[in-house]
Amino acid sequence: MAEHYKELDFTISRDDPKEGILKALETMRPEWDRNQVNVETKTDSGAVNIQCIVWRESDSAKQDAFVFRLNGDAASKLFGIDRANEIKYLRYMNQHGVGVPLLGSFKNGIILKYVHGRPITHEEMKKLPCSRLMAEQIARLHHITPGGIEEDKRYTQDGTYYHAAAHTHRNINNLPTQLMDPEQNARYQEVFPPGVLRKEFDWMMSEIDSVGMTVSLSHDDIHGHNVLYDESTASLHLIDYEHLSYDWTANDVGYFFQRCRFIWNLDTLAEDVISEEFRRDFVRMYLEYRAVLAGKSKDDVTQHQIEALFVQSYKTELFQYLSHAVMVLPLIEGAKEMLNEVAHTVDWLKLAIGWFKEYLRLKDSIGAMKMPTLNH
């Protein structure tokens, strides 16, 4: 039987989380001896969420353990994360047997069931069994999308963009006209003259419109560090649902293909190519899982469906390069203080320029791709 979700009405200190965790355990596990509780604290490399793994000394295998995630303000501000929506969607997923169980929440974070596993590399994402397991997990998430969601549109019912485009659109509107550092500003003005990102965004939206995207409940941050792979059980879980929202179905697939490349190494990015054979195989596996989940046979997946999603995912992958370039530009100056010390050493302008150049390099070839026609 699933554990009952518990909402705790207090804040856990980020400076000394253990005391707050012990207070939460009075509700979550009142039978635990607080003197036997272990807390291992980790901080992620970017948006400074704090994760605390919590277990009893007598349970070295962590069969009954928790992950307390203390939210970082940076993630909320930089990425426009709606924490209430995240909890709502996570609970909805759990009701349908998808995702890591959400066991509770407190004012500045959530409590998840601890799941065994490790992150995977971009190289592992391209190989079996990880690619197959990721296709299955993405399909399971998309399958549980509620009814009544508009399809074949880039806008929600109130006329605003879906999540990925909305975040990019908002960042473009808020970009600085110039940077304080003269050398950085010269580079910034050369690559991103006024209006260029707005022009490319509008073109990208016309491409999205041209391929008739459907909409699903989407992860919107698919990569190797947002999965837990357990080799002993050959199982894989998607984690980190901060960006979970309604979005283009093909966006998760395109994001997956983008993150199969080592996008942080700009020196080798152009040579790190994903083969069309791998792309089609992944799309086929994803569609086969969707068919089975819908009560159909894998054999019901048509070549037309494969080719259609193949093209759509190329378009959304291209969008990700533009989106990532826009996403990191605010980190050059104003948002830097919200990130941790590791992030302070990154040349965010160089990264934004590299991703924008990759977008421009791929733009013509992907822009020329058209949806397949049905043979009657």
Descriptive account of the structure:
With 376 residues, the protein is of the alpha+beta class. The chain has 2 domains: 10-113, Phosphorylase Kinase, domain 1 (2-Layer Sandwich); 122-367, Alpha-Beta Complex (Aminoglycoside 3'-phosphotransferase, Chain: A, domain 2), CATH 3.90.1200.10. Helix content is 44%, strand content 12%. It has helices at residues 17-28, 73-79, 83-95, 122-125, 130-143, 163-173, 182-191, 196-210, 249-259, 276-293, 303-328, 341-344, 348-367; strands at 6-7, 37-43, 50-56, 66-70, 102-106, 109-113, 215-218, 227-230, 235-238, 245-248. The chain has a 6-stranded mixed beta sheet with strand order 1-5-6-4-3-2, sandwiched between helices. A two-stranded antiparallel sheet has the order 7-10. Helix 8 (196-210) runs antiparallel to helix 11. It is globular and about 65 Å long. The model is unreliable at 148-158 (pLDDT under 50).
Features:
12% strand; 2 domains; 44% helix; six-stranded mixed sheet; alpha+beta; 376 residues; Phosphorylase Kinase, domain 1; 13 helices; Aminoglycoside 3'-phosphotransferase, Chain: A, domain 2
Summarize the entry for a quick read.
Helices cover 44% and strands 12% of the residues.
What summary fits the major beta sheet? 6 strands, mixed
CATH superfamily of the largest domain: Aminoglycoside phosphotransferase (APH), C-terminal lobe
Shape type: globular
Total discrete domains = 2
What is the count of helical runs? 13
The largest sheet has its strands arranged as 1-5-6-4-3-2
Helix content bin: 40-55%
Q: Could you tell me the strand content as a percent range?
A: 5-15%
How many beta-strand segments?
Answer: 10
What's the gyration radius in Å? 21 Å
User: What's the average pLDDT?
Assistant: 90
Q: Low-confidence parts lasting 5 or more residues at pLDDT below 50?
A: 148-158
Main structural class: alpha+beta
Intertermini distance: 50 Å
**What CATH first level of the largest domain would be assigned?**
Alpha Beta
What is the level-2 CATH architecture name of the largest domain? Alpha-Beta Complex
